[in-house]
Amino acid sequence: MCVKVACVGGGPAGLYLSILLKRRDPSHDITVHERDPEGSTYGWGVTYWRGLLDRLHEYDPESARALEKHSVRWAEGVAHVGEAATRQQGDEAFGIGRHRLLEILAARARSLGVRLEFEHGITDANVPAADLVVAADGVHSTLRTRHADHFGTEIRTGRNRYIWLGTTKVFDAFTFAFVETDHGWIWCYGYAFGPERSTCVVECAPETWTGLGLDEANEPDGLALLEKLFADVLDGHPLIGRTSARAGAQWLNFRTLTNRTWHRDNLVLLGDAAHTTHYSIGAGTTLALEDAAALADALGAHSTLSQALARFERERKAQLLSLQSAARYSAQWYENLPRYIHLPPDRMFALLGQRHSPLLPHVPPQLYYRIDRAAGRLEALRRFKRWLGPKVARTVQARTLASRE
Q1: Which of 127, 129, 193, 291 is most solvent-facing, going by the fewest CB within 10 Å?
Q2: CB-based burial of residue 120 (10 Å sphere; 0-12 exposed, 13-18 middle, 19+ buried)?
Q3: Model confidence over 259-280: pLDDT tens digits?
Q4: What pTM value is reported for the model?
C-alpha cells in the first residue's frame, strides 16, 4: 500500500519499522532520516525480556539472532540497603548497548535495501514527500511539535531527579543500591549491557539532590560524590558521564508524554514520539520495537492508509494501558520511598517487585507483604487481588482525569 515511506529518526522504532516493511514488500521505497552522525548515540545499555526476544524471532529472525548474540543476560536481582543485601530470582532479562543495538538494526536495514541518511535533520521546511511519513524522532519530536494542537500532546513532569550514567563495573544481576545520607535517600539501578560496561541510573528526591550539592556541582565533582556514595556496590569502579555530541552528564526530571491521537493525514507517531513510560520499568525499547511491528502489521492488513493508521493507534493504545499504569505506580513507589525503605531488606525488595500494583499505595506495606505472601499460596486470594487491582486503578485514574478538568 505505502509505496514510498520516510522514517524520521534513526532509533530502534524507525529502523525496525523499515526492516519489517522491506521484508513484507521489497518494492517499498524506504528512507530513514537521522539528524546525528552514524555511530553517535546517547545513553548506555537498554534492557528487554525473553518475551520480546521470542516475538522478534517471529518478526525477523536474522536481526533477532544478532540481538541475542550480542546481549548479556541475567535472571536475578539484588538489592543493597545500607550495609544489608538480599538477592532474589527473577525472570530472564537481557541487556545490550544502545550503540550495538542501532548498529545491528542499521546493518539489517541496509541489507534489505533501506536508504539511511545520517546528519539529515528534518524541520518544517524539508518534510520528505512520501506516501507515509513516520515521526520516530523521540520525545522532542519536531514533526509532532509542529502539530501539537492536533495531536493533543500532554507532558507530566516527575518529582524526582535522575541521571543516566555508565560504569566499568559489570553487574552480575539487576542491581539496586539504596544509600542514606544526611539529606535523605539516594539510590541507583545497575545492569550490565556488555562484557566491560554497565548502565547505572542514579535517582533521588529533589531535596536530597540540592542538599548534597548535586544541583551546583560540575560533572567531575558530581561523579566523584556519587562514586563515594556507591563505593560498596561499584567496587572501586568509576562512573562515566554521557559523552556524546548531544549531551553530557545531566540531571533530569522524567517527562511522561501522551498524545490524544497518534496520526494526522499521512503522518504517524511512533515510539517515544507517541508515548513515554517511566524508565524504572525498563520498557522503552520494547515498546518502540512493538510499535514498529504493530504498524507494519496494520499497513499490511488494510488497503487504505487511514484504516491502517486508525487500527495501529487503536490496538497499541489498548495494549499500552497496563504498562502505562505500571510505569505510573513504579515512579510513585520511588517518590514515596520512605514508606518502604525501613522494612527488612527481603520485605522491601519483595515490595519493590510489587511496585506496579495499584493496591500497594493504599495498603500498609507490612499488611500488603503478608497478603501477597498468602496470595502466593491461595488461588482464591490471587483471584481477588487480580479483580481488585484494576478496580482501584480505574478509580484512581477517573479521579485524576476529573481533577484536570
Answers
A1: 129
A2: middle
A3: 999 999 999 999 999 999 999 9
A4: 0.90
